[in-house]
Amino acid sequence: MDFSFLPDAWQLLESVQDGEHLILRVQDQSSHRPCPHCQHLSAHVHSHYVRRPQDLALGQRPVTLLVHTRRFRCLNPACDCVTFAERWPDWLEPHAQRTCRLAQRQSQIALRVGGEGGHRLLQLLGEVTSADTLLRLLRRLPLPSFTTPRVLGVDDFCFRRRKTYGTILIDLERHQVVDLLPDREAATLAQWLQDHPGVEVISRDRSGDYARGAASGAPDAQQIADRFHLFGNIREAVETWLRHHRDQLRESPNPVPTSLVSLPERPLARPAAQPRRTTTRGRLRIVVARRAERAQRYEQVARLFAAGHTFSAIAREVGLARSTVTEWLRREGFPRRQTPPSSLTRYAPLIRASMAQREWTVTQIFDALVQQGYEGAFSGVSAYVTWLREGHEPPATADQPGLTPVREKRLGVREVSWLFTLDPDRLTPEMTRRRSLLVDRWPQGQATYALIQQLTSLLRQAPTSGSALLASWIQTALDSSMAEIQRLGRSFKKDFAAICGAIESPWSNGQTEGQVHRLKLIKRQMYGRANLDLLKCRVLLA
Ligand SMILES: [Zn+2]
């Protein structure tokens, strides 16, 4: 075995295999050693002892070094030191339980995958180290120094959701996390800013604490409210306002007339590249088998009930839930599956017409329905066809044999709030149509939409005269009759300078959110051990 990795001055006295363990007995050959205090060389050996550090595993075999260490007398009369132990600064630190190279590797592993993960990974590599030791090594790593950032991003992150929060500080110019703070109080941020003077721009969310902290810690710095959070505030205001006008949304827009469609002459040709589904015959076989099994169980349930067993006893015996047994017995008859989804009811005439023609398979019927605008799954059609074949009658529809007109899905408050706030150029034609349908017949909706778009386009386009336009928008909002919009105007007025910053400056918290995401990932990797010091090590160093 090659042991050339050992320091040149070391002599290998013996290598012993103890089970899986490899033990290397070594000794320093140099006759003179320097005193660590005065650097005087001494050859006067006072005593010996043995150190037992671990080293990197060799071929998955744990390695322990037995280092014969000498204690020397310092012969320099001016030195306070009487005796000293010989040292190998690059190889083995005083009192260390592992060689420097092993400690370095283990702390790097702890940095990347955490204590528990590192412990398991090292086990695979043949090095036995506890998770706690890895974390101790991690804590010992020096944190990187940083120059005070000119543009600082500030955001919060949670240690425990809704309970304890911390603050992450980012150098937005260098794309680097500079520090983590233990809470999200104004005073803590102010103190940090006072300790690190020179920050010129602070990008933050809309939290009042950060605004106050930044103002008192760095009064000369320009504050910027994050655009993402501003859009969030706007959308919230729109949502609240819409909630008070639900009746306007409830009144569904005019149904879109759909031409009555009759059955095509022949099945539609299927494109060859389409992946094959399970065959209809295969599906039917499964359906039939399941039904037979259910029928058998039902008979068993009925028999046991007639014999005077309790519901619970029957459920245990047959292997069904007690509620199912109750339901079956209450119905007095073999329980058939419930009616397939009603979304297919309006296609029932089409399905029946195609079923009447022998050569149509369920797959072809499904394709024909998709052509007519059916958006459901194949399995729904398959079940429906089976249900019709069993002799069931679909409920009558108004316009047989064609399709009934489509009644559009009503939009919810949240969906409409998006229609109000998104860039109109980015809406799909369908979204544009829905928005027009809604606001065209609703003057107040039209006015609010115009007002909101005025504000969002201001944030999106960032014109040079942004602050004047924002001031005039706030005045319009305050003069409006809508309480929610007035409230939005008041909150924007209070944070006016920072919002002007958001309009006129290129900085935002987008990058900060990315760093928070990374922090969360690291935190969750560490299970419950993500204390601030450990988290800081891994976020700043990894
Ligand atoms: Zn000395």
From TrEMBL:
What are the residue boundaries of the Transposase IS204/IS1001/IS1096/IS1165 zinc-finger domain, all occurrences included? Answer: 34-75
Q: Which Pfam families match?
A: DDE_Tnp_ISL3 (PF01610), Zn_ribbon_ISL3 (PF14690)
- Gene3D superfamilies linked to this entry: Homeodomain-like (1.10.10.60)
InterPro entries under this entry? Transpos_ISL3 (IPR047951), Transposase_DDE (IPR002560), Transposase_Znf (IPR029261)
Domain Transposase IS204/IS1001/IS1096/IS1165 DDE residues, every copy? 152-331, 409-539
The entry's protein name is ISL3 family transposase
